[in-house]
Amino acid sequence: MWRHVRLLLVVTLTACSFGGGDDEDGEKWKKRPTPVTVVETLEVARGDVSDLLLASAVVEAEASADLMPVASGMALAVYKDVGDPVRKGDVLARIDNAQLDAGAERAEAEVAHLQARVAEMQRLSEAGAVSSRELEDLRYQLATAQTSLREARKSAGETRITAPFDGVVAARDIKVGELASSARRAFQVVDLSELRVRASLPERDVSRVAIGQHARLVSAYDPELTGDATITRISPVIDATNGTFQVTLTLSHDATRLRPGQYVSVQLEVDRHSDVLVIPKDAVVYENGAPTAFVVIDAPPEPAADPDADEVAQDGEDAKGEADADKPGEGEGADEEPAGPKLVAHKVELELGLTDTLNAEVLHGLAAGDQLIVIGQSNLRDGARVRLPKTTPDAAASPPADGSDAPDDEG
To answer: Which 3 state secondary structure label does DSSP give 51?
Structure first.
């Protein structure tokens, strides 16, 4: 009998022990602080926003020429190198060609021979020995030979490679002493004063593009390198293979930092709305394709306590809270909400207008002066508790240097 009594007592004590543990875990759960997200806000204001067409293109020179010798030959001298400015007609290099010398000699001999025959034919024609038709044919052969002689003399002895226009030497592929071929480029000359880009735009935008519209060019690898351009030509046809049309934009003369061959992003402005409500483009959060945003508002008042609650249980909870407050890490800590008004995030649905690379126009959903969340909005939910970052250090929260107000460890 005593054995059964002892067994019953052990079971009862064990059950009481588990029940006490559940109550303690429940209390800890109730005392757990509400998560608070630190966010940054921006006051919604009015501004300007543009409607942009975006494309990629390569900067190129309006005037660019690959220069090659007229005939193959040995390079005798090279006068210009990469980066050197040149004027139209400047000699860049001299090429020696023995065949041109021989051709000039043959042309001179041919002209001398025909001149002698024409003189003899003239005497025979005056004597009536030959017809006038034979004399005219011989004179034609002489004129042709004289033309060939002029061409041969122009290129005899040396061939000159000259600049076709004012510009800069962009490439030099010839060296003194090596064989220069008419099939291989010797120099490249470009005119840096006239640059352009050719961009392809979708067919749906053909009616929105016109000559004279302005665009902003931004380097693909360095956003600090920019330049302005204007549409000067629009292709009259649509490319059926990809459904695009081509526009040519001429860079302004002060866009000297952009170079031919450089990849740029073309931002073509086709419309602009001024003095409208705008927000940063990055502040918009899309949910199922619909644009939304979060603003900071005051938290709604908490519900009043139940007057019919058990006073004894409440006293026990208060005593438990006081005991927990005396324990390090379970009273006031870093996870608790700061003093002051409580703030929450409120989600609003937006109707957007024009959108450019930085801003978006708001047609409905926000008003001027709203505190828009611009950092920390990605993982928020409607009604989530938020707080703003501290702008000044909290002197009351920081411990003094001399430790005079350090917490008392007694008790």
So the answer is: strand
Least confident of 42-51, 235-244, 253-262, 372-381: 253-262
- CATH topology for the 27-49+277-387 domain: 2.40.420
Contact 376, 42 (CB under 8 A): no
| C-alpha to C-alpha distance for 330 and 280, rounded to whole angstroms | 40
- CATH code linked to domain 99-155: 1.10.287
Give me the sheet containing 73-78, strands edge to edge.
Answer: 159-162, 91-96, 73-78, 179-180
User: Looking at the DSSP assignment, which residues form a beta bridge with residue 50?
Assistant: 272
Which residues does 285 contact at the CB level (< 8 Å), separation at least 6? 291, 292, 293, 294, 377, 378
Q: How much is the pLDDT for 24?
A: 52
Q: Do 92 and 240 form a contact (C-beta atoms < 8 A)?
A: no
Report the share of the chain in percent with pLDDT over 90. 43
Measured over the CA atoms of residue 348, residue 351, residue 354 and residue 356, the dihedral's sign is positive
Phi and psi angles of residue 234, each rounded to the nearest 5 degrees, phi first: -130, 130
- Give the sign of the dihedral formed by CA 177, CA 181, CA 186, CA 189: positive
The contacts of residue 260 (CB under 8 Å, 6+ apart) are 59, 60, 61, 64, 170, 190, 192, 195
pLDDT in tens, 300-317: 887 655 555 545 445 554
Quick one: how far is CA 59 from the chain centroid? 14
Q: Are 179 and 74 in contact (CB under 8 A)?
A: yes
Q: Which two tokens stand for residue 210?
A: 């016109």
The verdict on domain 51-62+196-272 having CATH code 2.40.30.170 is: yes
Collapsing DSSP to helix, strand or coil, 232 comes out as strand
- Could you tell me which residues come within 8 angstroms of residue 318 by beta carbon, excluding any fewer than 6 positions away? none
What is the pLDDT confidence band of residue 159, given thresholds at 50, 70 and 90?
confident
Tokens of 192: 């840096």
Q: What is the CATH number of domain 64-97+158-193?
A: 2.40.50.100
| Contact indicator for 168, 210 with CB cutoff of 8 Å | no
pLDDT in tens, 111-127: 888 888 888 888 887 77
> What is the tens place of the pLDDT at every residue in 71-87?
778 888 999 999 999 99
Domain parsing of the chain, residue ranges: 27-49+277-387, 51-62+196-272, 64-97+158-193, 99-155
